[in-house]
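Example 9 (inverse folding). The structure is encoded as follows.
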């Protein structure tokens, strides 16, 4: 990642909620859990969309810094078509997703039905380029590829 692109990514990750417009674009599906934290229900949720995020708050209004960072990383890559579930709306969902993934913290990110990890893992994947490759496997072209190409042509 070029220096200026890295600084832009860092600035976006520092960008606090309320600093910009809504992040819930046309492709983002935010949904309540239906009150169920069952393994079958969670299995259906994580497999329903290519990119699924369980977070505190909503993409347009994350309620913790880690959830905000995940939203900003996805936004930086141009991932607009994803499902987002607010675990603060449903205690059963909040505990159920932790049990389902055997991961104790929120946010949680799933790609193609597979658990990726939380904010730290997604940030690491973003920094080392693995996220671009994983998105490519899902048929999603990272916006960073276009941005890098633009910078290389200058």
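The amino acid assigned to each position is listed next.
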């Amino acid at each position: 990642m070029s220096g200026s692109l890295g600084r832009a990514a860092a600035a976006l990750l520092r960008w606090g909620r309320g600093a910009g417009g809504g992040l819930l674009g046309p492709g983002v599906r935010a949904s309540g859990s239906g009150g169920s934290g069952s393994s079958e229900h969670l299995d259906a949720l994580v497999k329903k969309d290519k990119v699924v995020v369980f977070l505190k708050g909503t993409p347009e209004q994350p309620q913790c810094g880690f959830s905000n960072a995940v939203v900003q990383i996805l936004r930086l890559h141009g991932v607009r078509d994803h499902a987002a579930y607010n675990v603060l709306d449903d205690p059963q969902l909040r505990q159920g997703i932790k049990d389902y993934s055997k991961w104790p913290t929120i946010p949680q990110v799933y790609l193609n039905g597979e658990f990726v990890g939380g904010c730290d893992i997604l940030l690491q994947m973003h920094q080392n380029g693995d996220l671009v490759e994983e998105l490519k496997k899902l048929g999603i072209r990272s916006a960073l590829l276009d941005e890098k190409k633009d910078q290389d042509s200058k």
